Amino acid sequence: MGNEQITLLSRRxxxxxxxxxxxxxxxxxxxxxxVEPGISTLQLNEEAERWTKKRGLKNAPLGxxxxxxxxxxxxxxxxxxxxxxxxxxxxxxxxDIVNIDVTPIVEGYHGDTSRTFFVGTPSPTxxxxxxxxxxxxxxxxxxxxxxxxxxxxxAAIQDxxxxxxxxxxxxxxxxxxxxxxxxxPQIPHYGTQGKGKRLRSGMVFTIEPMINEGTWRHDLLADxxxxxxxxxxxxxxxxxxxxxxxxGVEILTKRE
Length: 256
Ligand code: MF3
Ligand code: CO
Ligand code: CO
Fold this sequence. Notes:
Number of helices: 4
Helix content: 25-40%
Low-confidence stretches: none
Bound molecules: 2-amino-4-trifluoromethylsulfanyl-butyric acid, cobalt (II) ion
Largest sheet: 3 strands, antiparallel
Strand content: 15-25%
Strand order of the largest sheet: 1-5-6
Number of strands: 17
Mean pLDDT: 98
Oligomer: single chain
């Protein structure tokens, strides 16, 4: 894994990734507006399927991996770190937090983005965790520049998260993304400034910090996907797909 080729995208390929990123951002906006007490995570999945089908798009999560992921989006509630599976019996309740993670495919390119939404009114702890996690994403993005290192990103995120009293998930990381959903390099959300692979113009990858209220360690459910905090305390996540440009960074999953 560590020695695999990192793809540098051409201008044309980057244009494809911009279209995919824009679709992902729009889908996520749309689903976020539906989040309220009483809605099930399966209803969010069904709306994602309607939205993408109408535009002739596929969702990368459906059938992905082993065992094949069974739904079209991930919905990760409260203590679920990532890869939560939408379920009719999971009704969102006032005070919950839910991460919605979408990856529509546009002309072969993947746009991968997620946000954590409040259901009704959050507890003070949930509110702080979610705000800190979003800030972690933007600090990670701000650390990206050509000539820098992958470790610059993790260091920026870890320094902030831990200073706020939270922990950084180690076992799930950001990733290269293009025509392939999960490509090299891996982008850990912890690390040391100046270490790791060099960042070069044309690299496209996700930054997707998962930040926990308590321990960073996880348990995996028997479904083979749902990752939850070992102490069952809260976890939040935000994700963008970004491109390293000639002089900095471009967020591809941001809506104009
Ligand atoms: N979208 C997730 C990520 O950010 C991956 C989901 S894989 C799935 O990398 F199979 F669970 F959908
Ligand atoms: Co994602
Ligand atoms: Co991702």
